[in-house]
Amino acid sequence: MNSFWKTFFATLLAIVVSSVIFAALAVIVMIALIAALSVAPSANVKPVKEGSILKIELAHVSDTYVSNPWAELGLDNSDGSIDLPLSYVLEAIDEAKNDDRIKGIYLNMMDPGCGYASAEALRGALEEFKETGKFIVSYSDFYSLKGYYLASVADQLYVNKEGSIAFDGLAGGAVFFKDLLDKIGVEMMVFKVGTFKSAVEPYMLNGMSDANRAQITSYLGDIWGRILGEVGASRSLDSVRLQALADSMQSVQPTDAYLASGLIDGALYQDQALEQLCSLVDVDEPDDLYFVSLRDVYETRSKSRGVGANVGVLFAEGEINVAVADSPFNTKKVVSDQLADRILEMGEDDDYDALVVRVNSPGGSSYISEQLWYAVHKASQNKPVVVSMGDYAASGGYYMSSGASYIFAEPSTITGSIGIFGVVPNATKLANKVGVHQDVVKTARHADLGALDRPWTEEERALFQQYVNRGYELFLKRVSEGRGMTRNQVDSIAQGRVWTGAQALELGLVDELGGLQDAVAYAASQAGYDTYRVTYARREVNVLQELFNTSTQAVRMKLMTSWFTDEEIRYIDQLRELRAMSGLQTRLPLVVDI
User: Fold this and answer.
1) Is 281 exposed, middle or buried (0-12, 13-18, 19+ CB in 10 A)?
2) Residues 6 or more apart from 246 whose CB is under 8 A from it?
3) Catalytic residue at 134?
4) Could you say which of 253, 274, 299 is where a domain stops?
5) Can you tell me the distance from the alpha carbon of 143 to that of 112, in angstroms, rounded to the nearest whole number?
6) Which helix (H) or strand (E) holds 218?
7) Of all residues in the chain, what percent are helix, strand and coil, respectively (each to 5)?
8) Angle at the Cα of 404 from the Cα atoms of 400 and 409, rounded to 5 degrees
9) d(CA 412, CA 149)
10) What is the per-residue pLDDT across 128-167, written as a single tens digit (0 to 9) for each?
11) Per the domain annotation, does 22 fall within a domain?
12) Under a CB-based contact definition with an 8 Å cutoff, are residues 302 and 345 in contact?
């Protein structure tokens, strides 16, 4: 018995002591968190000094701001240059343009990790910076085509002595699965409206249709022509010469050839490129160079736009779909009907004088697209609602945009694709092949629609096609009302066809070419104000929740990139998108690979 009580009291004491220690540690951690929060914002921002150089290193540019709770707690050691939203980057460059303490920009990136519309916006900001007489120097070990497109604006453009430039042109296409599906016994029943609605072609064909090839040729040619023109103007090379260089596969050429052709100003190692910077800011050696990041400049930017209209900016970035459950394989952002609710709330909120919806979406669910259109349309009845199109605002992305008061697009925005489709798998042959059979009892003729081993009847197929046709007619109606066009006028430029922003302007699908800043300024003017401030809509979460979400996302992406290549991840995303396609779809092809 003594042994029992000794064990009992020892265990009890251990529990009490452990609880006290745990409580003490929790208090210490909370104090540390509070202390970090109180000092972090200023501790992580470098001051801008006389002779500063803005260093731009962009690994990925998105529209949506993703907060970094580690930085907020003072636990992030990054320099703040990477993975800022496009709006912040553009504002930081604009601030640097007007700050006399900043003498120039040092571009140090291989690829900006964004679409060509965003790259156009970045390049335009760099050109405006350069017009002030300040320098831009670019260096990279390797340049992607997009990276070189941006770097070509520089006064001095360098690449590593053993580096390369992927100035090889644009390509776009899709992966086709018809033969594979035939072999395993799965028929993809396709219901669509639109000659150019090519998202379903991978399940019907083994290659592009003539219509799809024509539209891809058109929009790629439009984007490529602008690249040739802008790069040529910056590097004093005509388009014919640049086309010849692209046709000779620049990615495998020696750096001596780049220098001889005029693509670069020198082949140097990075320390040698930094030595070139020294003479521009009058310092003796690279160690004396003083770099500030985009985040540094953004956090210390002028607050002169603190009065006037309050323009709320919301972001529709990602495929349009219902919110999906968390999964290790979720790598993409989703625009759900939660955004529609937020648009309606801000439309009714008198704190906002105007709204800008930044759309960067290839589309998705027709149902969710309709909810988003309704929200944009209703909000526009209360105040100016302007859409700013990013890299993609096509199909469902255009559907929701058509409800706005005014639409801006970048010249290389991928938009249009006004069409609709539904895809339903029929696995009857596969079920028979593997010996799987299903038997049902039903109380109505079509109650077992979708049964594993029963093909659809002609009546069922006809009824579903009518359902698709109604969806297309509603899409045309929304666009014709929003754009002041007849149904037939819209139909003539619809049929699922993809256009660039520049082409869309000529067709009347957008109102003006410009970026997010142009859209914000226009929205403020429509609200009757000459000055404005911007409120970016961000979801509100507590720091601990944000830490947890950020950590799990980081682990997820680390596992994905450890297990799979980028190409494999892209195909996983395609399969996930196919599985998520419920109901009618208003979206681009599964792959728009530019």
Assistant:
1) middle
2) 167, 168, 169
3) no
4) 299
5) 10
6) helix 210-235
7) 50, 15, 35
8) 80
9) 13
10) 999 999 999 999 999 999 999 999 999 999 999 999 999 9
11) no
12) no
Cα–Cα distance, 494 to 49 (Å, whole number): 53
Cα 89 to Cα 71: distance, rounded to the nearest angstrom: 18
Minimal CA–CA distance to 54: which of 296, 368, 248? 296
Considering the candidates 197, 361, 369, 417, report the single residue annotated as catalytic: 197
Q: Which residues contact 540 (CB under 8 A, 6 or more apart)?
A: none
Among candidates 280, 305, 507, 547, which has minimal Cα distance to 398? 507
Q: Residue 589 — φ and ψ, nearest 5°?
A: -55, 155
* 81, 336, 366, 395: the active-site residue: 395
Q: Give the tens place of pLDDT for each residue, 407-441.
A: 999 999 999 999 998 888 888 888 888 888 888 88
Active site residue 55: no
pLDDT higher than threshold 60 for residue 575:
no
| Orientation of helix 116-130 relative to helix 210-235, angle to 10° | 20
Please indicate, yes or no, if residue 107 is contained in any of the structural domains: yes
Give a yes or no: residue 112 inside a domain. Answer: yes
Q: Cα(232)–Cα(246) distance, rounded to whole angstroms?
A: 12
Q: CATH number, domain at 247?
A: 3.90.226.10
DSSP code for 527: T
Q: For the residues 54-60, what does the mean pLDDT come to? A: 88
Q: Dihedral angle at the C-alpha atoms of 326, 328, 332, 337, nearest 10 degrees?
A: -10
Domain that holds residue 125: 52-171+212-299
Residues 195-245 have pLDDT tens digits of: 888 888 888 889 999 999 999 999 999 999 999 999 999 999 999 999 999
Residue 329, burial from CB neighbour count under 10 angstroms (0-12, 13-18, 19+): middle
Position 167 scores a pLDDT of 96
Is 422 strand, coil or helix?
strand
pLDDT: which is higher, 79 or 126: 126
Give the per-residue SS3 of 439-459: CCCCCCCCCCCCCCCCCCCHH
State the amino acid at position 332 in one-letter form. Answer: K
Task: Name the β-bridge partners of 52.
Answer: 102
